[in-house]
C-alpha cells in the first residue's frame, strides 16, 4: 500500500488547528494532528516543504521505518517543530494501518488494558469562591479528578482562568498579550485555596494543580510541602525542566506527587527525570513527542521506574490528538490519567469523533483506525487567524515564564 498524496489542512474553528491527511493508492486515508500553538505555520511549512515530498511512494505500512527515516534522516533532530511534524505523519499512518486491518489502533498496540480512560477537568475561577463553585460543577458532571486553578488576589490575570466556564483558550488573536506575575502572592494564596476545596467537598475526588513552570525549585519545594495535607493527585510543571536536576531539590522536601513533560519533545528530554525517579507522572503528549511510535518508548521507560502517564490534553490539541491519545491510553499498561479540556461545538463539527465522556471516563468506540475524521468542507469555513500564547513579566518588568 503506497502513499499516493498528502496535504496539510489549516482551520480555525475558534482556535487554529493543523491537520495532515495522507492518502494511499488503495483508497484508504489517515489523518494526524500537527498543531503547535502559536507556531502552527512553521509545522505546516515543515510538512509541505520538507516531509511530504519524501513520503510519496513510500509503503504506508512501514510505520517504524518511516519514523526512523524522518527522525534520523533529518539530521537536525528533536525540537517541537520537527517532532510535531513527525507525530502527524505517525498518527496518520497508524490510522491507515487500523483502517486497513479493520481494527481500532489500540488493538494493534496489544489490546485493551482498561475499559475506560480516567480524565480530569479544569475548574477555575477569578477568585476562590468562583473556583469552588466550578469544582462543584465538575463533581456534578461526574468527574473523579479535577484540576483547580484560581485568580491571585492583587493580579489582573492568572494562568488557567479562562474567559468561559467550559472552554479555555489562552492564545489571543493578533500579537501576544502580556501578563504580570507575583510568585510570593501566589504561594500565599494557593494552599488556602485547596484547604477550602477539601473542607467543602471532602477527600473523595482527586485534585490537581498546575504551577505552569513559574516557580524556582526551592519555591516549588515550599509549595509542595504546604499542599501535602490536601493530598493532591499531582503538582504539575513546578519549575522549568530544562535543568532536570532541579527536581532533585523539590523531591527532597515534599511528598506531593510531581508531574511534568507537556513541552518535552523526546525521550531524551525526560530520561533523567524518569530514571532518577524525580517525577511520578510523565506528561509528554502524542502530538509533540513524535506520535504513538515514540510516545510508547517513553511510556515503556517510565514503567521501569513506576512512573505513570498523564498526557497533556489541552484545547490546542485537536480531537485527532485526543482520539490518538485515547487509543494509546487504552493500551498503555502504566496509565495514570488523561487531561481532558473540552472543545467547542465548532471544533467538534470539524473533527467528527466517537469518543465520549461517561462518569469520569472517556470511552472509545471500536471504530477502525483512530476513530476520528476531518470534515474538510466544514474546515474551510474557518480560515487561519494568527494567534499567540501570552507572555509574562514580573512586577519590575522582568520577562518570566508564562
Automatic annotation (TrEMBL):
Q: Which residues form the Mandelate racemase/muconate lactonizing enzyme C-terminal domain?
A: 128-257
By its UniProt entry, which InterPro entries does this protein fall under?
Answer: D-mannonate_dehydratase-like (IPR034589), DgoD-like (IPR034593), Enolase-like_C_sf (IPR036849), Enolase-like_N (IPR029017), Enolase_C-like (IPR029065), MAND (IPR034587), Mandel_Rmase/mucon_lact_enz_CS (IPR018110), Mandelate_racemase_C (IPR013342)
Domain of life the protein comes from: Bacteria
Name the reaction it catalyses: D-mannonate = 2-dehydro-3-deoxy-D-gluconate + H2O
Q: Tell me the keywords, alphabetical order.
A: Carbohydrate metabolism, Lyase, Magnesium, Metal-binding
Required co-factor? Answer: Mg(2+)
Q: Where does this protein act, in terms of pathway?
A: Carbohydrate metabolism; pentose and glucuronate interconversion
Q: Which Pfam families match?
A: MR_MLE_C, MR_MLE_N
Look up the EC number in the record and give it. Answer: 4.2.1.8
Q: What does this protein do?
A: Catalyzes the dehydration of D-mannonate. Has no detectable activity with a panel of 70 other acid sugars (in vitro).
> Mind telling me what this protein is named?
mannonate dehydratase
